[in-house]
User: Fold these one by one.
Assistant:
Number 1:
Amino acid sequence: MTGLSGPAQSVEWFGDRAVAVLLRAPDTRQGVVEALQQALPGRRVRAGMESVLVEDRVPDASLLGDVRQALAGVAANTTAATSDHPEVIIRVRYDGDDLVEAAATLGLGIVGLVAAHTEQRWTVAMMGFAPGFGYLIPDGARSVDWSRLPRRDQPRARVPAGSVAVAAGMSAVYPEAMPGGWHLIGRTAARLFDPMDESSPTLFHPGDRVRFVEEPR
Amino acid sequence: MSSTLATVTGATLATVQDGGRAGFANVGVPMSGAVHRERYLVATALLAGAPDERCPAIEILSGDVSFLTDRDVLLAVVGPARVDVDDQRAACGTTLLVPGGSRVRVSTEGRGPVYVVVDGWQPEIVLGSASTDTFSRLGGAILRPGYRLVGDALVNGRERIGTFHRALDEGSGPVRVVSTGHRGLRAFAATPWTVTAVARSGVRLAGGPMAASGSVASAPMVPGAIQLTPGGEPIVLGPDGALTGGYPVVAVVATVDLDRLSLLSIADIVTFRAVEVDEAAAAWAARQRGLLRATAHPDQLP
């Protein structure tokens, strides 16, 4: 698409009440989300891995132009202020059913996998799949190529609530019992979703930094 | 004073819904809400005097719901249904006063969902909405025998008894979609698709020549997004559909035609037609004006 500078590679309609912004650089996602949310207070903005979606509640033919205009004020290398995103600590018992297999696939022993998972700094790239479910991506230096571990061939019909999992270069915590295809390496007692808390129902928010800490087995 | 208005004695596929749960999609909470928004809003207008997205309703997708009234209640049924009160036929699309101790049975007998609204009913509100998400089981309820409708009886008063709204026509022809810029849209829109599964989470289609496509980076999804899955069977997301997806989206159903997806049954043939956003938005605005006219009190009509 011509005429676009800044963080967007393209800006396209996604239905008649949403516009999808494809990013040049995925690590600008949270900065773009926050800049667009500030510039377009009546609309809702959500992050994807390599895109950002701006939504209206009703069809609105002016949305595309409004998003383009708002993007013009956003730097091509924008990032979110880390001071706005506290580090969330998740205490984990590393005793998941797939721990041995996951460690082997990554070329590590169990001790090595636990060390790598707890040393890694993670960021909530996006949320979805289920309420409170965050897609955590490695942040900064990494001692392991997490993407060497794909999703499981056979998804489980039921993954227990609190399961800590890794797959496809990411990590996650299952907020509730649900189907899932990631490798289970541990579990946490942390409560990731509280539907009765109207002001902040989830422990994670897009852009938050996350660190896992081992609890003795 | 809150009290039991009615107690469910039987239900097949019914949930509590309202206009939906807005504002939490960025932390993974789907919108949910009535799958046929217009029918639902007509039902709410029968009680509230105007469409009211906060009014709870029982959404019956198929089969029937039976309940026993614990006290006098004002209720209305909108959609293709047979309504029996103590084995007497009663009307749809109008406000009924049902005496306490009555056995009410609402049976679906046509296309798409049926909505039952009960005056004064106050189901559990979760994150600002009574809607039930059938995937995460958040909010409201999936109705089962013994479920009690609790609230304040007759808050809107008896003056609404006999209020009548005509249903709007459902529209016809291909379902209108907006392009996402995906190259497969021409082939998609040229194909008569067969419905192979229907649920609140979405509608699955089969029968096209669409090549199976790979996965893309996970991206935010919306109701009406048409995902091309690796097996070549497109999925049109519904109100309880996933908020994120890693499949290419060939197009997104225009808001004005979202209700029509809820009328589809397995084995139906459905076709799609691409429209510009201007046309989709104008069609939606016209439809909204029609809804407001259809639900206006006769005194308020110009």
Note: The mean pLDDT of chain A is 93.
Number 2:
Amino acid sequence: MNNKDITVAKSNRVRKGFDIFWYRLFQIITILCASVIIFVIIFILIRGLTPFFQSYDIDGQSYRVNLGEFLIGTTWFTSPNHYGVGYIIINTIYCVILSLLIAVPMAIFSSLFITRIAPKPISKFLSIVVELLASIPSIIYGLFGMGYITAFSKWVAELFNVQTAGGLSTLSVVLVLAFMIYPTITMLSVTSINAVDKNIINGSLALGASKTQTNFKVVLTSAKNGIFAGIILGVGRAMGEATAISMVSGNANSGPTFSLFDITNTLTTAILRGFNDTVGLDYDIRFSVGVVLILLIVGVNIILNAVKKRIGEKSR
Amino acid sequence: MTRTNLLKVCACLGLATTLVACGGTTSSNQSSFDSSRNITLYTRDTTSGTRDGFFTGIGLGDAKEDNAPLKDGVVTVDSNGTMMNRVAADVYGLGYISLSTLSENDSIKGLDYDGVEPTEANVLSGDYELTRNFNYIKCASYSDSTKEELVNAFIAYMSTQEGKAVIQSEGGIVEIKTTDPTWASIASQYPAVSKDNSSVTLNFGGSTSVSNTAKALAESFEQLAGGVKFSHNYLGSGDAYTKTQGSNAGEFDLAFASREFNLTSSEPAAEGTYGTLAIDAIVAVCNIANPYEATDAATLVSMYTGEVTTWAEVID
């Protein structure tokens, strides 16, 4: 009897020790992962700010980059030390907004179709298709963009009797981005629409609202937080996309570009272009563009979250 | 209900396929050429040695550093292959590539330069003048006699039949003559190569344009010279003189430049320490559908600076 008590106490102690061990392990892993992100940001910040404070030796003379000129510049590079990303920031925002205008309505309508309108087998099939689309790597979208979307843009431009650089254009960038973010937004919308309380929907139908009225006025308004989360993720993906865009943008050296059929440039393609072959200031300046990109994404996320909050409060 | 919906989905898929097919046909439909259209200019980014060679060759040397002398809206691509694909996809495109890759794409054609057709024979005979030399430079003196002998053996190897074959396989233009020595016939002049050199490391560096050729040569030389090791560090032609005979002399044992050395002013290399290993020819290219056939330096300059904007102005 006494012996058994001791064993129980012992095993309890062992179990407690076990708990503490796992608790510590998870804590350490979490701290490690979180600190990696912090290290990345600190590293990019230090490298990215160097060109504005440290002088670089170019052809025997030392130069540094002017920060103000860098932020509002309308030409990427003028020898020896003038860089500008102002027009690229505008191009990036412009392309992302246009792609959202295409992708968001499409995503909302298709998620409504998948969850509310389509019969079970079709809805199941379509959600699998959307999930597959979301998992396609961006380089594939780039190849598709180079092969077909540029040809399509060229064809559209010919309809308007405008000349394009073989289809490399803002339109191609916008279409590729729209294709890429559409599945992300659709998937999150589907999830959030599925989570809408069935009683609310039945209530609406019982009060005599038609199916369409219910879908738009009740389902969508209840699911809008989830849809908005999808949009935020989509914006992040669109802004951070480099490979696919660099294949269809044409890498405009100056700007900004507002015409749909002119070549353009985004922050990510500016980082990518010629990165493997360059050294010194021209290399380090890419980190500065990276800092601008991080700040832009953080800023846009803050704004979108604020908007999301306001919309949420309004409906309440 | 289910059946009609299934039909709708099928119809949608069918429509999508038609759309994609349309995109496909527009891309191949390039036979029509309207000479009143604008010339779309394509250029490599500023880190490219081909860009340097091209603009220096046509007398627009300012444009090798940045895009300021060039027309606005010039499309920047970041590799030889992309350049070919873009000009192949754009009937109104004008670009420039390395001669060695011209035959890889049959949708583009090389333009005659100063009345001379771009062929390897014309480059070797000196008639085709839009070329640049790939040069090597060694140190004026070596502290280690084994290293010195191995470098000399390597230089000799570059002009043997085997060495030239390697250079050719990497796209360099050299003429393999039957009178050229084989490696077997000259190896005995360099006794160091028959020893075990696996502990010796030769430091190579210089131009990025020559790096592939130099690496391939080094790889094939390794087995011929007692397993000598190589360390490759290619950052630009500027390093070639500086790190062999200039301010950082001795950092490289052998270095390469994709341009001529500035013998009279900043790069007074010692007599007999430098030479040419291969020639690289640059070809102005346009789409196969373009009737434009021959060009010259002045015309290329006027096209790239925007003085001439439509194809009609240069096609007679």
Note: DSSP finds eleven helices and four strands in chain A.
